[in-house]
Amino acid sequence: MTAMATDESGRGKTTVERDGSGLRITVFAAVEMGSIVLLGVFLVFWAIGEVAAFLRLLAGDDNMMGLLFWVAMWTVGGLVAAYVVLWQLTGKEIIELDAVRLTRRKLLLGLGPSREYKVADISDLRPAPYTYFLGSGLDEGESRYVIEEMCRRVKSLCAQGSTD
Question: Which residue has the higher pLDDT, 38 or 156?
Answer without folding.
Answer: 38
